[in-house]
Amino acid sequence: MSENIRAGTNRLRVAAVQMRSEIGERESNLKRATPLIEKAAREGAQLVVLPEMAASGYSIENSMWIAAEPVDGPTVQWLKETAKRLGIYLGIGVEEAEGEDFYNTYVLASPDGRIAGKVRKVHTEYNIFKPGEGSRIIDTEIGRIGIGICADNHYIDMPLEMQEKSIDLLLMPHAWPIPFKAAGVVKEEDVREQQENVKGYSQLFARMLGVPSVFVNAVGPIGPKRWEGILGRLIDPAVYRNAGYSSISDSDGSLLARLGPEEDGVIVADVTLDLTRKLKTAPVSYGGWLHPGDPLLRKVVMPAEICIAKLKYAVRPGRKAKARAVSRGR
Is the keyword Signal assigned to this protein (predicted)? Predict the structure, then answer.
C-alpha cells in the first residue's frame, strides 16, 4: 500500500463506468464496456470501476450458472489485458465458479496486468451463490481499498469492517433495481424514497468513513420475467429497473460527480485520500441495516426467504457437477 497515503494526503483520479449488461452476453457486455473504460483512461483516471456482474449481466435465477467462469477465465483475462494496455487499476463483477460452488465476485486488476485481489459478496443471492468469506479489503500501491458488492453495503457490518481495517478508498459496485413508477404495491413515496437512497449512497459512506467512495450501478431492465421467491415476485420487471445514479464522493463527504438513471456513461473525479479525515463514528443501525425499512419484511419475510434460498442452493440438481466443470475450464 502507498506509504505517502499513510503519512498524509494523496490525490487520485477515479472513474465509475455505468452500463447496461445483457444477461449471459459476456462478449457483447465487455465490448460495450471497453470504449467507456478507454474514455475514462483518456481523461486521466488511475482507477476505473465497473458494476456488479457487469460481465455476465445480473439476475437471481439459477439459469445464470451458464454465464459462470473460473476466476482466471475469459473475463479476467480481458480485465488484465485491458488494465495493462491502459495502465490503470480496473475492477469488474464476475460470476465465479470454484470447486463445487458459484460466487458473486469482484476482481481488481493492477496496471501491470496482474490481479490485485478479489472479493466475494457476503449478503448474496443465496439461491445461486455461496456466501463469500474472508476480507473485503485489497491492499494496493494506491492504498487500502475496501469493496462492498451491492447488498453488502446495506448492512451495518460493512462500515464497521471498513473502519476497523482503516481503508483509504471504498468501491461499491451494484446492480440495484428500484421502482421507476408507482404500480400495484409500489407507491409514489416508495419511488421517491428509493431514488433518494440510491442517489446518496456514495455520500453516506464517505461521511461515515471519511474516505472517498465510488458507487457504480448498472442500468437497464432487470430481465424478461420476475425472479424467484416472495420478494422476487414483488419485483415486477414492468415497474423495476437497475437504478443507475452512479456517483463519486470525496473523503470530506462532498458529492463530486453523479450520472442519471438511464444512461451508459462515465464520471471521472479527483479524490483526496487523507489520513486525518478518517472517521470511527459508529453508524446508525436500523436493526442491522443502514437505512430504515419495513420491520415485518426484514424480521420475518427476508429471513424465511434466505433459509429457503440456501436450501434450494444446497439441493439444486447438478449444481456441484456444473461448478466443477466450469472451474476446470470444461
Answer: no
